[in-house]
Automatic annotation (TrEMBL):
One GO MF term attached to the UniProt entry: 8-amino-7-oxononanoate synthase activity
Name used for this protein in its record: 8-amino-7-oxononanoate synthase
Cofactor: pyridoxal 5'-phosphate
InterPro entries associated with the record: Aminotrans_II_pyridoxalP_BS, Aminotransferase_I/II_large, AON_synthase_class-II, AONS_Archaea/Proteobacteria, AONS_Proteobacteria, PyrdxlP-dep_Trfase, PyrdxlP-dep_Trfase_major, PyrdxlP-dep_Trfase_small
Amino acid sequence: MTEPAPSWLDELPAHLQALDAAHLLRRRRVVRPLGDGYLSVDGERLLAFCSNDYLGLAGDPALVAAACEGARHYGVGSGASPMVSGHSVANAALEEELARFVGLPRALYFYAGFATNASVIPALVGEGDALFSDALNHACLIDGARLSKATIHRFAHADLDQLGRQLAACTARRKLVLSDAVFSMDGDVADVPRLLHLCEQHDALLLIDDAHGFGVLGPQGRGTLAQFGLVGATASRRVLYMATLGKALGVAGAFVAGDATLVEWLLQKTRSYTFATAAPALLAEALRASLRCVERDDWRRARLAELVGVLRQRLHAGLAGTGWRLLDSPTPIQPLIVGDNATALALMDGLRQHGLWVPAIRPPTVPAGTARLRIALSAAHSVADVERLADTILALSPRPSQNPQEPTA
Ligand SMILES: *Cc1c(COP(=O)(O)O)cnc(C)c1O
């Protein structure tokens, strides 16, 4: 009897232990929504500031009713790829409504956002082409870039001077610039007009991922492009707009929108579209109901803006001199930078003991030394909820140092 050769599979327990020892082992909590921004988290009732359900639509009765009605009508599953028999009349109607809503010629509805970016990029560029990517872009843009085999030029976050130099120096025929519209861990908004201007100068296409701006920014929540007036008659064929439908829209999925020929090309060439089962029609019906709420309910965005103001005002004054700082974000993503991982985890834990749930975000999701609490506000929160959060953070914050050179910004 010979010993079996050692397998790489036998190494996995040690790798898991190493992650655990480095405080990098991720654990899921089992949650259940309790309404009004509360979650049951492993059985404990907590006021949650960690959801991207910015407009409070995920549990809205109008959406639930539309999903139930959709299930009665169409059943639960779509049965096949949209290229075969999965493109239901509900999904087709949703695409038209999405295109009209964002003010672009045509839209294509995908079952998931990650897969959308991961496969749209390889449909547009390949070996010998060039990609330009903001250093803080979402993981799915990065994965799509790698899958494409195009040469990747990374530019420092929001450093459009550097991007301009990279574009000018590039001789590739096809150039694609990738950027989040609202950066998911910092909450800041990309300078889309300037990005577009650079793309026009250098014959590049701009892919904008508006996962966190769609529904929240722009008139009636039409998104970041609409906020900058780059839609309708002033839309550019150089912009491919992408947004997800599981955040402010409260459901699931994603879409791309832009020039009709460009979208037709993606319909032909995007592998996660062709070779994946279509999103169920009941989701399309829930999304159509959600779009009506997003368009009509300006009060949801007004409430969010009010909550952002309340949080920023309380924390800004209270944190002066503590070494903790709120990033300068106009969106419902309000990151509180505390620095090291242990502090971020201790703060998360302290808040949890006070019935509040705010996720600590550590490297590698964010750069080393910028561990933070990612506070996400929602129209489901009240002013009193946000005041409670701010006051609890202040009570747990370090005492202001007497050092007069502390930054005040
Ligand atoms: C969440 C997110 C995605 C992924 O979308 P899913 O529909 O959740 O797969 C893509 N891009 C950004 C910027 C995101 O925040």
